[in-house]
Amino acid sequence: VSNRVLAGHSLRLTLWRYVCSDAFSTKTWAPPGYFVTDEEDGLSKAPSLPWSAKRLVDIVEAILGSATTYTIDQKLQVASQLGLLPEEISSFAAFGTAFQGKLDGYMPTADMLGLSEFTKRLMERIQFKFEHPLLAIHAVTRSSCMGFELPSYECLETLGHALLDFLVVEMLQKKYEFFEEGELTIVKANCVSNKTLAALAVSLGLPEHMNHHSSSLSGAIAAYVDEVTVEREKELELGRPIPPQYWWSLLPPKALADIVESLLGAVLVEARFNLDVARAYFDRLY
């Protein structure tokens, strides 16, 4: 989804030909690529205009954005027509089908493995039951955890980050229909910022469940937990009807925000890319 890739798709599909930069008027309308003149036939070929890569990217993103009222599968079909997805991904369920074998082959189920107290407490914290408990542990394991057989949470974090962006935008569009694009962007960035997610991680008690072998990170997390707890208690004492973002002045360790996103990604994988399950998890905790 880099600007270079999106601009390439925009050029390939010649989407720029369909852009109207002037107010629509029936008196001056002409087919794409032409404009009205005083010539005998009334039409003249439009001159080629310099299009920056950013403007080409904006066209693709605007088309995707116009599909906000569609179902998730319809949105994916639009993305597929734009060349952003492989042909075999025709629905959201197709992601789950593609991942099914890897999940069952790589992750033993709870019946096969049994649940440790650590995993039980983690699932209680996030109010979600994993049939593949190693997936939950995977989601809270950092690369600094030496000698651990599971990979770190980076891949799940990437998946969760993308899903979180989607769900937050979906929520904001339903809740604040009157928002302009700029306002929506600002609020969305606030909702998914590291500061907000780190405060959420503390409220869920996730710091104690992180697997890592970094003494500096342990110190940073402990200091942040103390600071954000104090700030939260101050706001509760004031009893404001709409308390401000008490966490906003603090600088949290990024790892706390990471595990919030990685756990969301893990829930989606566990649910075999059932978006309704992931959305219910999001609505419950966010």
Automatic annotation (TrEMBL):
Endpoints of the signal sequence: none
Matching CDD domains: RIBOc
Any one GO biological process: siRNA processing
InterPro entries (UniProt xref): RNase_III_dom (IPR000999), RNase_III_sf (IPR036389)
SMART domains: RIBOc
Domain RNase III span(s) in chain numbering: 119-272
Protein name: RNase III domain-containing protein
